[in-house]
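Standup, Tuesday
Yesterday: got the pipeline producing structure tokens again.
Today: sanity-check two examples.
Blockers: none.

Example 1:
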Amino acid sequence: MTEIKNTSMAYYNIDNFMEDEQVASVVFSEDIMGTKLYKVVKKNKKTEMHIFAVRFLIENEFCKIHRSEEDIGEFSRLKNDLDAQADIVDLKNEIFYAFITAQKSDSENSSEFLSSTFLKRMGRFAKLLVKENFGENEISHLSYEERKIIIQARKAYQAHVKYEVNIL
């Protein structure tokens, strides 16, 4: 790893991003040649990879999430928390892969659970759309997808308000 001393340049250091990125255990359906992001992977062997790469690979059916008993227990605990009060559960990056796993098993029950959880959470966070300003702490425990939805919806709302003002 190359050490970057200048603090303004350290912000752009890819190693800093990679250290903080969540990893998930996956199993590949075929041998994979190594790259800068991961080493050579043998078929049907469990390996850990960063979430940003795993998501692409799963969507294109190159690998699947490896499920351990610990992961299943953690997801059960999380599911209970979300059923109790979905809007206060911290869903930022660290458990993102659990939702991918949930979609891949018990498909009917999981998709219903994910839909109801999403609706409960968005019902609470929808008020951010019309708020003039909000801080990072107000969206800190949203998942990546939830943040993206809030930010895109907010942009659409602001464009609508600007359009209405221009008409009047």
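Example 2:
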Amino acid sequence: MYDTSYVGIAEDKILDNRSDVQFCKALQLLKTHKNLEASIYIREGVTSLQKEDSGKGSEIRNKLDSAIADLLQMAAAARKGTLNEDAFANKYHAAEWMVVHDEIETWEQMPALDAKTNLHLRKTLQNINYKLISEDAEVKKEGECLLKEGYAFLKSSQVLARDTVISATHREAERIKSFVKKQI
């Protein structure tokens, strides 16, 4: 008989958000008409985004690949001075949310899911909290409610039976994915 329990090995930090920082810098540069520099930051952001992505097949894999291709085209448009700031902001926000969704799918596929023994759910909630900074009031309100319920779930899962935690964690993952999909 094999031990199929999962022991969390994730580092205790929020997911690396270099792409977010680079895309934000690109947006600032676009607003000041520093198009060549913005183009460079967009390309660097795409490279970072690809590193942040798990690379595993998820249900949004094609959308993420398409968003990356669009961002590369936007880098070329920025260099020419023809990139619309709002279109760029919308595209990169959606791509960032796709990476969060991909991360959920990655930890959701683990052999045994136990919120008490791994940090993946907590990290996903932290990453969503970080993403909410740049969202409008309605998304922030819904996201804050999701975060409150998610953290309450983590706290309550410490006293639940293992089988209950696993099924409840899957339900929580579906709820979080539903929220993230709305942002894509």
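Quick observation on example 2: Confidence is low (pLDDT under 50) at residues 1-15. Residues 58 and 102 are 6 Å apart (CA to CA).
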